[in-house]
Design a protein that fits this description.
Layout lengths: L12 H4 L6 H15 L1 H29 L4 H6 L16 E10 L8 H20 L2 E8 L3 H8 L12 E3 L4 H11 L27 E4 L15 E5 L10 H8 L3 E3 L3 H4 E3 L7 H14 L2 H8 L6 E3 L61
Parallel strand pairs: 1-2, 1-5, 2-3, 4-5, 4-6
Antiparallel strand pairs: 7-8
């Protein structure tokens, strides 16, 4: 028995603490902690989603602006007082017996930004061909991987409604075979534009050829021939893979050639062309049959390209140049902005491999 002088023992802190937390309360506390810990991650996800949404809207808007001639911008520029029924209709495009194939079999060699640029180039190439006075058959070969994913998602699958173009999973050789078969049908088109000027009634589908355009080729293209197929390398690689399109063609036994840019023009600075510019040059030639005029009308003035001395709009190259001679125009790299973002593209101009190309190919141009 404790004496009266002894003080009662003090309660410990543990004995004074609150009863244990219930399971539900503990779960809620853990849930709240986890939510707080993920705050920064959720913020980053929201930023990414907002950026992707904005990019999709820009892509769709650009897609309509490029392809749809009845876009709001075009409507706004039309004269408001003229009834729609009386407005002059644009001349209908004439389909010619010639094919252009964009070889997209380099998906694994490109970075994400470069694939974005290539998608833009393909879109613009289609648009230019669709609106040209004289247009070609257009094929996009090796269509798959990240490129196809972008067309299906960011670009909302609008390419499925495009006309006058075929997207193929098979490679450029299979596309060229399809083009050759098409030339044997009544859907091949007719000899008009530059082809009409030849006046050669004996030209048939059997006279067509398959040419891979690349600036690395020792051969220079002098003209586009009816019933032929011209392949452009769809690769944007900042010239990392030099000569890849030329090697690709040689391994398959395909004839190669480069555009005669160096025969007609001299450069005052590093020369860069976008893929759609290459396609537009070819389309312009199909209309006028003159390289000099096609180059001057299509190549942006800011690139510094001017006609060489002795070259006129009559399409006459300098007398010192001969067919097949190596020119100094160099390669033509692609340089294109897509949706306000970086879209520098090395165009294999005519390999149009989206590399640098002299006419086709992907070497940087050598200054005179």
């Amino acid at each position: 028995m404790a004496s009266p002088s002894e003080e009662p023992p003090l309660h410990t802190n543990q004995e004074q603490s609150e009863p244990p937390m219930s399971k539900n309360k503990l779960k809620k506390l853990l849930r709240d902690q986890k939510w707080e810990e993920g705050r920064e991650k959720r913020r980053e996800i929201r930023k990414i989603k907002a950026k992707e949404k904005k990019e999709r809207k820009r892509a769709v808007r650009d897609d309509h602006t490029l392809i749809d001639p009845t876009s709001e911008k075009r409507k706004a520029s039309a004269e408001p007082d003229i009834p729609a029924s009386k407005k002059p209709r644009p001349a209908k495009s004439v389909l010619l017996p010639i094919s252009i194939v964009i070889d997209c079999g380099f998906d694994d060699l490109m970075l994400d930004g470069e694939r974005t640029s290539l998608a833009s180039q393909v879109t613009r190439s289609y648009s230019e061909n669709n609106r040209a006075s004289f247009k070609s058959h257009l094929f996009v070969s090796s269509f798959g991987g990240h490129l196809k994913q972008r067309f299906d998602t960011v670009l909302a699958g609008h390419h499925r409604s495009w006309t006058g173009v075929k997207f193929l999973e098979s490679d450029f050789e299979a596309a060229a075979d399809q083009a050759a078969e098409l030339m044997k049908t009544d859907r091949r088109g007719r000899l008009a534009g530059a082809f009409k000027k030849t006046g050669d009634e004996q030209v048939t589908s059997a006279s067509g050829e398959v040419v891979y355009l690349t600036s690395d080729s020792p051969e220079t293209l002098t003209e586009l021939k009816p019933y032929s197929t011209y392949i452009i390398g769809g690769i944007v690689d900042k010239n990392r893979h030099k000569g890849i399109c030329y090697k690709r063609a040689m391994d398959r036994g395909i004839k190669t050639a480069k555009l005669p840019i160096g025969d007609y023009m001299k450069m005052t600075s590093r020369f860069v062309l976008a893929t759609n510019h290459v396609v537009e040059i070819m389309l312009r030639w199909l209309e006028v049959g003159e390289w000099a005029k096609a180059f001057m009308e299509v190549i942006p003035q800011r690139k510094g390209g001017v006609l060489k001395d002795g070259v006129s709009a009559l399409n006459q190259p300098p007398e010192t140049k001969t067919q097949g001679q190596e020119t100094d125009s160099g390669a033509v790299e692609q340089d294109q902005e897509e949706e306000g973002a970086a879209r520098n593209i090395d165009a294999d101009v005519l390999s149009v491999s989206d590399h640098a190309v002299e006419a086709p190919g992907h070497h940087e141009e050598q200054q005179p």
